[in-house]
Design a protein that fits this description.
alpha/beta, Rossmann fold, 2 domains, 6-stranded mixed β-sheet, 44% helix
Length: 260
C-alpha cells in the first residue's frame, strides 16, 4: 500500500527534498554564508541548487552519502531553527499531522479514522488508527463441487500510523515497529522533510539505517508536512495479523458487531 507518488529511499529522498521543497531563501542562506560562487547572478532556485551541488562536490567528492550528509548539514547550519520550520512547513507538534493524514485516508483510501490515540500493546499507543469495512464470500462445496452453503463474512481492514517530527530521534522507533506490524494489516510511519535533514546532518547512516529497518519489518514510510502528504518513501507490506489481535483492536475501536 502506498500514499501518493513514490519518492524512493536514500539518496533519492535527500535529492527530492533538495530539488522540490527547499525555497530560494533557504538555498540563498547557504550560498551567502559559505561564499559559494554563482555561475549566474540571478539567484533563482535552479542556479542556487546548481551552485551548491558544485560546491559540495568540489570539497567532498561525488559520493552520494557524502553529498547528502553535507547538503543536509549546510541547510541546517545556515538557517535558523525558526526559519527552517517556516521554509519547510514543519508541524509544531506531531498532532498537527493528524488532520493531514486523516484527510488523505478519507479521500483516497475510504478509511474511517478513529478520533483518539489507541493503545496497541505495552506502553505503545498508535497516533492514528483507521479502518475500512471489507467483505468476503465463504463457500462450502459438496458432491461434484456443488455449493452446500454460502456465507458473506464481514471484517475490518486495520491501518496504523505513527507520527514523528524533527524533535524526535530515530532510536525509539525501532522498539515500536514490531508492535505496529503485529497489530495492523498495514502500518506507516510519517516523517517530515526537516526530520530527514536533521537526522541526516548528524550522520547519513542514521537515515539509511532507519529506512532499511522499516523495509525489513514491512512498515511503510510517508513524507509529509503540516499541509499535505508529499509522497511515499516506502510502501507498506500487508501483514496477516492474528485473529486475537484483530479482535482485541476491533473491540477497542468499538467494532464489536463485525464478524472478524
Amino acid at each position: 500500500m502506498q500514499f501518493g507518488e513514490i519518492i524512493g529511499e536514500p539518496p533519492w529522498l535527500f535529492h527530492h527534498i533538495f530539488d522540490e521543497f527547499l525555497p530560494v531563501k533557504a538555498l540563498d542562506n547557504v550560498v551567502s554564508k559559505k561564499q559559494v560562487p554563482l555561475i549566474s547572478q540571478t539567484r533563482n532556485a535552479r542556479d542556487l541548487r546548481r551552485a551548491i551541488d558544485h560546491y559540495i562536490k568540489s570539497l567532498y567528492g561525488a559520493r552520494e552519502s557524502e553529498f547528502c550528509e553535507t547538503f543536509a548539514r549546510l541547510i541546517v547550519e545556515c538557517s535558523s531553527h525558526r526559519d527552517l520550520h517556516k521554509f519547510l512547513d514543519e508541524p509544531t507538534q506531531e498532532s498537527d499531522l493528524k488532520p493531514v493524514l486523516s484527510r488523505e485516508l478519507r479521500s483516497m483510501k475510504s478509511f474511517k479514522v478513529h478520533p483518539r490515540e489507541v493503545p496497541i500493546g505495552g506502553s505503545t499507543r498508535a497516533d492514528l488508527v483507521a479502518y475500512k469495512r471489507r467483505h468476503e464470500t465463504w463457500e462450502e462445496r459438496g458432491f461434484l463441487g456443488r455449493i452446500k452453503d454460502r456465507k458473506r463474512i464481514q471484517w475490518f481492514e486495520l491501518l496504523g500510523v505513527e507520527l514523528k517530527t524533527a524533535k524526535r530521534s530515530p532510536d525509539p522507533l525501532y522498539r515500536q515497529v514490531r508492535v505496529y506490524t503485529e497489530r495492523f494489516d498495514n502500518s506507516f510511519l510519517v516523517i517530515t522533510p526537516l526530520t530527514v535533514l536533521t537526522w541526516g546532518s548528524k550522520e547519513y547512516h542514521n537515515v539509511t539505517r532507519f529506512v532499511q529497518e522499516m523495509k525489513e519489518k514491512g512498515m511503510g514510510v510517508l513524507l509529509a508536512n503540516k499541509n499535505r502528504v508529499l509522497g511515499t518513501v516506502l510502501r507498506s507490506r500487508e501483514r496477516k495479523i492474528g485473529e486475537k489481535n484483530r479482535r482485541e483492536l476491533a473491540k477497542t475501536l468499538g467494532l464489536t458487531r463485525a464478524q472478524i
